[in-house]
Amino acid sequence: MSNKTIDGRDLKFASSQGIRTVLYTVPQYHERIRYLSNHSGFLQAVAIVSGVWNIGYVNYGGDDLCRDCTLFYDATDLNRKGARLFSEKLARVVAGEFAGHDFAGGVADPR
Q1: pTM to 2 decimals?
Q2: 100: which residues sit within 8 A by CB, 6+ positions away?
Q3: What is the pLDDT of residues 19-76, one digit of tens each?
Q4: Which of 3, 32, 85, 94 could be a cystine partner for 75, CB 3.0 to 4.6 Å?
Q5: Residues 6 or more apart from 78 whose CB is under 8 A from it?
Q6: Residue 5 to residues 23, 72, 74, Cα–Cα distance (Å)
Q7: Are 23 and 50 in contact, with CB atoms under 8 Å apart?
Q8: Domain boundaries, given as residue ranges, for the chain
Q9: Contact at 8 Å (CB) between 107 and 57?
């Protein structure tokens, strides 16, 4: 699955294998968002897929990480420090998902 498409075949396969899936949107530097042509449409599509497939979705697009330019290599890529901080945040959410704090089919607050 790429960051541009969500393929139902991948989700169906994961489900058939007992693999729990979590969708997430990575942090991007907040100044970049206004230049994206269909960012809100993409977020809506991910939220719909999350609901249809009953999969948790975490949107880091508004996270505090997005406002700190020192955490980015460029407008779309976190640097080493940013990647470490993001990985720690994502790990806490995923650990919560698999520890029984189920947010399947909904949007989790990443903070």
Answers
A1: 0.71
A2: none
A3: 888 888 888 887 777 777 777 777 788 888 888 888 888 888 878 888 899 999 988 8
A4: 32
A5: 26, 27, 65, 71, 72, 86
A6: 12, 24, 23
A7: yes
A8: 8-14+21-103
A9: yes
